Amino acid sequence: MVHNPKLSERLFDAFNYFLLAIFSILCIAPFIYVIVASFSETNTAIPSGFTLDAYYYIFTTNTFVRSLGVSAYITILGTFLSIIVTTLMAYGLSFKGVPGRRIIMLAVVFTMIFNGGMIPTYIVVRSLGMIDTYWALMLPNLVMAFYLIIMRGFFQNIPNELIESAKIDGAHDIVVLFRIVLPLSMPVIAAISLFYAVGIWNQYFGAVMYINSPEKWPVQVVLRQVIILATGNIGDESSMDADSSFVGQSVQMAVVVVSIIPILMVYPFIQKHFAKGMLLGSVKG
Amino acid sequence: MNVNAFSERYKKLNIYLLNSRFKNIWKYRWLYLFMLPGILFFIIFRYAPMWGVVMAFQNYRPHLGILGSEWVGFAHFERFFSLPDFWMLFRNTLLLAIYDLVIFFPLTIILALMLNEITREWFKRSIQTIVYIPYFLSWVVIVGITHLLLSTEGGLINEIIHYFRGETVSFLTSTDWFRPLIIMQMIWKDAGWGTIIFLAALTGVNPQLYEAAKMDGANRLRMIWHITLPAIRNIIIILMILRLGNFLDLGFEQIFLMVNSLNREVGEVFDTYVYRVGLVQGQFSYSAAVGLFKGVVGLILVLGADKIAKKSGEEGIF
To answer: Do B279 and A230 touch (CB under 8 A)?
Structure first.
């Protein structure tokens, strides 16, 4: 029997390319459908015509616009706080000589596999008086252990001689961090900022637990009212009773589109840093 | 040389050691200051709740606090274990976790291996860019799109089914469809992203190994089996251990959003139950006990899997 490597190779490749293409189409198709349908003139499953009515409707309603504002606010402030606290802690942990470093690392890793659970965490947040405040949406997940470890790994990869020589020249720890370490770490900082930002923008359950006033709801909670429960009226509260609780399908689609636009906007800029930033750090972590 | 002189020297040595340790700490004072906010975060939001689990052994009353509330031992646990719902929750949680491990996890590895075989850089890049995107969308959006597609009233897929078969399938409220839908959503959202760490590990494989295998007449599948897979074996095991421990937490938002009164029988898991009886009904202590049970199961799974990995000669995570 004559084995023909060329044919089998080519079959293998063709099959591989084909399957991957199918998978990526399946990944993206639902979004394309939702985007197209949000411009539809009719409220049927098959989109037809073109209109901006759905967008006009959601941008003239207070509830949705306000929830976008809330989410933007907590995302910007929360990401800023998270990245500062994480960077500083990762930097401190990246020095081998610091006494207590091992214990702190172990304590951090332990939180990755065990936590107090939903109820005790809720009690802590409540006893700090953060119920119904935006702090409850930012502080309970201020530092993610996994990101901290990735950043620490990245800092450890920076040649020690660089830091030592700066110190011999009399540079302060703060100067070393801002002038030498941070400029070299922009890829990892960009990638992790995006992860934090996406995490805060996407958080839903935190708001369900901690936020009672509807006017403080972030966008995900409003989204759920409108699409999953399909009962939500995203108009002003005053019109809540007058209007029946039906939201047209194209409005639901438009709401989804608007809520994912911020992510799709920053994604291409930061995407190129993922592999580099994530992995240089985590391999050593 | 008497005892006195000796103890004198010993004291000096002690003071010297203390001093040097203190000096060391003083030398790094700025680094400690840098770490302080982070350490405070871990103490307040990660360790304080761990201390809070003692309320699972009490009848916690908010106005009395943990120190003042009455101790009841294992009463809440006994109540939970004797509940008919216990087995339902246990089964649902475990089945979803097993699905995750035997369907989702291998799929990410296969996907990574397939991507790794692509030689055309532009094609690989484009595929990666596309399959990462869903990872960045919230569960509300993913579940929302699922609703928009599968709803029996105007959902695209049901419209198509209706066109061909004249009837609709109630995906969102049926007990048969709950688990398949959950796993499909997971694949849709996370499978692409799951490949990233494997692909990075594979960039480190020595290309000479492939050359040598080619000389020996190995075909592509054999090379994958004998070179590529062993190269990422370590990472597969580490990720598997971590996922095994986390799966009880993973997917909570997703399940919470997908479960409804009609599919509750297969959809309710420990966490959704904790939320319902704990925060909605206000039974703090009882649901803290349920949460603690879940946490302990997760911990045992990680430590157990780590032990097994080490016994079979792998590195493990600790």
So the answer is: no
Q: Which stretches does DSSP call E strand in A124-273?
A: none
Please give the C-alpha separations between residue B293 and each of B73, B254, B297, B303, in angstroms, as whole numbers. 14, 21, 6, 15
- Report residue B192 as tokens: 């692409």
Test B38 with A89 for CB contact under 8 angstroms: yes
Cα(A17)–Cα(A23) distance, rounded to whole angstroms? 10
For residue B133, list chain A residues with Cβ-Cβ distance below 8 A. Answer: 27-28, 31, 264, 267
When computed from its CA atoms, the radius of gyration of chain A, rounded to whole angstroms, is 24
Integer Cα distance of A267 and A190 in angstroms: 11
Which residues lie closer than 8 Å to A253 by C-beta, 6 or more apart?
A34, A35, A37, A38, A40, A54, B148
CB within 8 A of B59, min separation 6: which ones?
B69, B70, B72, B285
A40, A45, A46, A49: CA torsion to nearest 10: -20
Q: At which residue do the structure tokens 């982070």 appear?
A: B38
CA dihedral B60→B62→B68→B73, nearest 10 degrees, is 10
Could you give the CA distance from residue B38 to residue B281 in angstroms, rounded to a whole number? 34
Residues 6+ apart with CB under 8 A from A144: A82, A86, A195, A196, A199
- Helix, strand or coil, per DSSP, at residue B59: strand
Are A255 and A175 within 8 A, CB to CB?
A: no
Q: How many Cα atoms occupy the beta-carbon half-sphere of B24 within 13 Å?
A: 13
Per-residue pLDDT of chain B (318 residues), as tens digits, is: 566 776 777 777 777 766 777 777 777 888 999 999 999 999 999 999 998 889 999 888 888 888 888 888 899 999 999 998 899 999 999 899 889 889 999 999 999 999 998 988 899 989 998 999 999 999 999 999 998 899 888 788 988 998 898 888 889 888 999 999 999 999 999 999 889 888 888 887 888 888 888 888 888 888 888 888 988 888 888 888 878 777 777 778 999 999 988 999 999 999 999 999 998 898 999 999 999 999 888 888 888 888 888 887 776 666
- Measured distance CA(A121)–CA(A123) in Å, rounded: 5
Contact B45 A282 (CB under 8 A): no
Q: Is the ipTM of this complex over 0.85?
A: yes
Shortest CA gap A242–chain B (Å) = 24
| Longest Cα separation, chain B | 105
Percent of chain A surpassing pLDDT 90: 44
Q: Measured between alpha carbons, how far is residue A166 from residues A160, A172, B24, B167 in Å?
A: 10, 8, 19, 74
Flag if A143 and B41 touch (Cβ within 8 Å). Answer: yes
Q: Which residues of B touch A224 (CB under 8 A)?
A: 140, 144, 257
